[in-house]
Design a protein that fits this description.
Layout: H1 3-16, H2 39-57, H3 62-71, H4 80-86, H5 93-112, H6 128-132, H7 143-147, H8 154-176, H9 186-199
């Protein structure tokens, strides 16, 4: 599917669900211009985010988790901001909220490497207990999880990227122009948009 056709398809889909459509938004890149992250990179990112969540909600596990990530060769894959968080003696409420919301990013990443099924629309907030069902047991070897990861077709990933791009813009416009937008969880959309932009390399690094 060309980028223009994908844009039109997304706009028709959003319009049919009662969302405002902004025709001036450009198409995304063509599929042949996209460099997707490898499934192994995505699997490693899922593990890092999940263990950061464990650290935030049970700080007594911090040292065990850091040592485990080093043993598994994951510590050198964390982002600079994540390193600061892992090494903080205590998280404030804002940091805990940000880390908790990353559950939606993790769910999108799991979907992108075929570790979870279809994404529902409209999306419902994911429960972290459900995420852990798709991960290796706590502090157990991550090798099989990483090596068995396979990437979804690029066209499916770009379909989601295009949808989330236009949804995220619709929320932005609804706030700045007081548009009447149907009830929908903006936080879910933002986190999944954040994650898919990393998968497609629209963002250079995770922290950007």
């Amino acid at each position: 599917m060309t980028a223009s056709k994908r844009k039109k398809h997304t706009e028709n889909f959003l319009s049919s669900h009662g969302f405002p459509v902004f025709d001036n938004l450009p198409p995304l890149e063509e599929e042949y211009n996209i460099t997707l992250k490898t499934p192994q990179e995505i699997a490693e990112r899922i593990l890092i985010l999940s263990y950061l969540n464990c650290t935030a909600f049970d700080p007594e596990l911090r040292n065990r988790i850091i040592n485990f990530l080093k043993e598994e060769g994951l510590w050198n894959k964390i982002s600079p901001k994540e390193e600061l968080l892992f090494e903080k003696p205590e998280f404030n409420n804002d940091e805990i909220a940000i880390i908790a919301w990353r559950a939606e990013s993790i769910w999108m990443l799991l979907w992108s490497i075929n570790k979870s099924d279809q994404l529902n629309f409209p999306p419902e907030e994911v429960n972290f207990n459900l995420i852990f069902e798709h991960l290796p047991s706590f502090l157990n070897s991550t090798e099989d999880f990483v090596t068995s990861a396979t990437l979804r077709p690029a066209t499916e990933i770009l379909d989601q990227a295009d949808l989330l791009f236009r949804l995220n813009w619709a929320f932005y416009q609804s706030q700045s122009n007081q548009l009447n937008i149907k009830e929908f969880n903006e936080g879910i959309v933002y986190e999944r948009y954040f994650a898919i932009n990393w998968v497609t390399s629209f963002r250079g690094s995770w922290d950007e």
